[in-house]
Specification:
Chain lengths: 309, 229
């Protein structure tokens, strides 16, 4: 089932096209990662889909409702906008009470406290948000997006400015929410985060989607080579020389030493071939490690400038 | 919408400006009613009757309501746009609910204040001026609608405060001027102010002011719906 479908979605500010004829489909239940540099159009896309910004052209459908009927499904959507500020004189609990009423929900204080506990804000729930750090505001932003147990959750940079410990908490929360069936649409600058969390990834550049797929699809498409590390039984010099000559016909040999060797293969299918050859030569393999391309490498191969968090 | 109405209503009571307005409103109302009660017989002789008790409140509203309303309502929408808190609301409810909620919150504040002000007169007049209450609510609703419109059109809350002050001075002046002037332009503009309708001999004209309020609110909504937040 499709949770979100965008068709030729475009946003222009004057002569500047921020999102350009974007087409995208997101399957229900997936954790979709949206990557791109600053100004790539990620936040503008989320803002259009969530009704904050009007598209210049194109259409979209969310949870089966057309863009102009967004009000019909608002209670099933959770949004953490890219820039979150709160009512200064409200506490976290006040905010959740207010937002739940705006959504038309009748939640008990206990239920709201549980949401704050999930984002590790329970201790500060009665503190006015004017005294909150950036990271705490981000957590409250996530909490307010979760109060309605949404079917689709949009998180724009959920961990930027958040301390390392809290990031782990947010990651496990995202996994938990996804496991409960919520479709998650996540933008991030943190490539590791997207790689760890997302089941599907799209890379956006200059307003358009440059590529899209699962991590393994992206790897097979953009990975230029795979490095293979082999830990094997002790081999003598003669065997080392023989292996260097013979394996060079099969793979690129980086090094062959008495107990460790390193090779570069062009694709995954060469790995079992490599292993088979070593076994045939009666070299017992203890461990074989494959270094796959990271998102950073894919980014570089795509010619998109990398921004790490 | 009700949640936004309630929050707007409560937040109005939390500002110093609103508290000053309430004190002035109640002070002038009670003071003038007290004064009138001392000259009850003379005023009856002049044919002013019981309505004289609300004269202080009505005069205060005529002259100061624009300033009162715009000073506390000029930023009801653009302040949330400046702080971006509007983004949380706009992803949770329709834009209609936001605009109507803001309007109803403001009007509720004034309904309560004006009702209390008129209740304070009851010990002197021994009656509650219901028609005057309705008319004063309609009068105030014009300026709430105008403030909401300004707050939606102009992003900067300092600018809407300034525009509110200018209009608070200009509208009563134009309204009163049109009573004496034969100038066509002034007369035409005066139809856009509530003063024309409130100074007409036929008191039912006052209800026409509601049309202005509705126009302001609907224009605010149309503009707000087209806004990128």
């Amino acid at each position: 089932m499709i949770a979100l479908r965008a068709t030729n979605l475009t946003k222009q500010y004057g002569n500047k096209t921020v999102v350009n004829n974007l087409n995208l489909e997101i399957t229900s239940g997936s954790i979709f990662g949206f990557l791109g540099q600053n100004g790539a159009g990620k936040s503008t896309f989320i803002n259009m889909i969530t009704g904050l910004v009007r598209p210049t052209s194109g259409t979209f459908e969310i949870l089966g409702a057309a863009g102009d009927s967004l009000n019909d499904v608002r209670t099933r959507i959770g949004v953490l906008p890219d820039y979150s500020t709160f009512y200064e004189n409200f506490t976290a609990l006040d905010h959740l009470k207010y937002f739940s009423k705006v959504l038309g929900l009748k939640l008990t204080t206990e239920e709201l406290k549980k949401v704050l506990r999930d984002v590790q804000l329970e201790e500060a729930m009665n503190t006015k948000t004017k005294n909150y750090s950036f990271g705490m505001k981000k957590k409250l932003g996530i909490a307010q997006a979760l109060i309605n147990k949404p079917d689709i959750l949009f998180l724009d940079e959920p961990t930027s400015g958040v301390d390392a410990n809290s990031i782990l908490g947010i990651h496990s929360l995202i996994r938990k929410v996804a496991a409960e069936g919520t479709t998650i649409f996540l933008t991030s600058h943190n490539l590791d985060e997207v790689e760890k969390l997302c089941t599907e990834i799209a890379i956006m550049n200059k307003g358009s989607i440059q590529t899209k797929g699962t991590m393994s699809e992206l790897r097979s498409q953009y990975q230029k080579s795979i490095t293979v590390y082999v830990k094997h039984e002790m081999i003598d010099n003669e065997t080392q020389q023989k292996l260097t000559i013979e394996l060079s016909k099969l793979v690129k040999v980086l090094s062959i030493s008495a107990t460790h060797s390193e090779f570069i293969v062009q694709n995954e299918s060469a790995i079992p071939e490599l292993n088979k050859y070593l076994v045939m030569q009666q070299v017992n393999v203890y461990r074989l490690e494959v270094e796959e391309a990271s998102l950073e490498e894919i980014f570089l191969n795509l010619g998109v400038e990398v921004q790490t968090a | 919408m009700l949640a936004i109405t309630l929050r707007e209503f409560k937040s109005l009571f939390q500002s110093i400006r609103a508290i000053i307005i309430i004190v002035v409103l109640f002070g002038v109302t009670v003071g003038s009613a007290k004064l009138v009660s001392q000259f009850k017989r003379e005023l009856s002789g002049l044919g002013l009757g019981d309505n004289a008790y609300v004269i202080g409140l009505m005069l205060l509203l005529f002259l100061a309501a624009p300033l009162f309303v715009t000073s506390i309502s000029h930023s009801s929408v653009n302040k949330e746009m400046e702080s971006k808190t509007i983004r949380f609301l706009a992803t949770k409810t329709s834009r209609e609910n936001i605009i109507f909620g803001k309007f109803l919150g403001n009007i509720s504040f004034w309904v309560l204040c004006l009702s209390i002000a008129l209740l304070l007169i009851v010990p002197f007049s021994k009656s509650f001026y219901f028609v005057d209450l309705i008319q004063s609510i309609i009068f105030v609703s014009y300026f709430i609608g105008l403030s909401l419109f300004l707050s939606t059109v102009v992003n900067n809350s300092s600018l809407t405060m300034f525009a509110g002050i200018v209009l608070s001075i200009a509208l009563p002046v134009i309204g009163m001027w049109s009573l004496l002037s034969k100038n066509v332009a002034i007369d035409t503009i005066s139809y856009l102010t509530p003063y024309f309708y409130y100074t007409h001999a036929n008191t039912s004209y006052t209800y026409f002011v509601l049309i202005h309020t509705v126009v302001f609110v609907m224009l605010s909504l149309i503009i707000f719906k087209r806004r990128d937040l």
